[in-house]
Amino acid sequence: MARQLEEQMVARFPVGKRLRVLDVGMGRGAQALRLARAGHQVTGVEQDAASIAAVREAFAGEPEGIRERMRIIEGQAGDTGVHFLPGSFDVVLCHGVLMDDVEEPDALLAGVARMLAPGGMLSLLVRNGDAAAMRAGLSGDWAGALAAFCPPTASYGLKRLTSTLAGIGAPLHTWYGVRVFTDTAADGAVAPDDLDAVLAVEDRAGRTDPYRGVAALLHLCGVRG
């Protein structure tokens, strides 16, 4: 996903431009730290105290110049309008936020999109509602796979997401699949010796039909008109 995000940012913004980035639901800050190291001004919003502590610990070991480019706000993803003015950011990340139970997810996305300046980019990562049965099926969990063929009405597939992004003023520009072949790997599994090859295959599959359509996650990039 980091490769995909960088690809889109490089294509959309002038080389060397220091971007204003908002990371909504930043988790443990992997993307925020990467972007701050790249020279961008990053603001993270997170409500989980353990995640915030992990981010602060990670940034504490960075040079002062990088630490100065990072700001953390404790709050919920749906409260962006409380903390920021509309149009305050060039790039907004909303990765994994909609993977949890969220009341009125479309309204949350609309609020997030309002933070974008004209021409700004929204990077959205969600579970792929069009392929909900894949992980269970590949793992041999047949009961789970059968149940997943009837996902909740709140699940997001590509068609619904395309409509939602158009409706909130950040129409879909491009999309990728994430974790096409590796979704069944156990949490905390040791990285394989041929990790570079694994990443190359995932990168290729994530941008190639029909493989990206059955990925565990969808990474969509919308652009503010």
Structural summary, described in words:
The chain has helices spanning 2-12, 30-37, 49-60, 64-67, 80-83, 105-113, 134-138, 142-148, 158-167, 195-205; strands at 20-24, 41-46, 70-74, 89-95, 116-127, 172-178, 217-223. The protein has 225 residues and is α/β, with parallel strands linked by helices. It has a seven-stranded mixed beta sheet, sandwiched between helices. The longest helix has 12 residues, at 49-60. The radius of gyration is 18 Å and the shape is globular. The relative contact order is 0.15.
Compact summary:
It contains 10 helices and 7 strands. With 225 residues, it is of the alpha/beta class. The two termini are 24 Å apart.
Annotation keywords:
225 residues; alpha/beta
Strand content: 15-25%
Low-confidence stretches: none
Spatial extent as radius of gyration: 18 Å
Number of helices: 10
Helical proportion, percent range? 25-40%
Order of helices and strands: HEHEHHEHEHEHHHEHE
Order of strands, main sheet, comes to: 3-2-1-4-5-7-6
User: Total number of β-strand segments?
Assistant: 7
Average per-residue pLDDT, rounded, comes to: 93
What structural class do helix, strand and pairing data support? Answer: alpha/beta
Shape: globular
Note the gap between the termini. 24 Å
Largest sheet: 7 strands, mixed
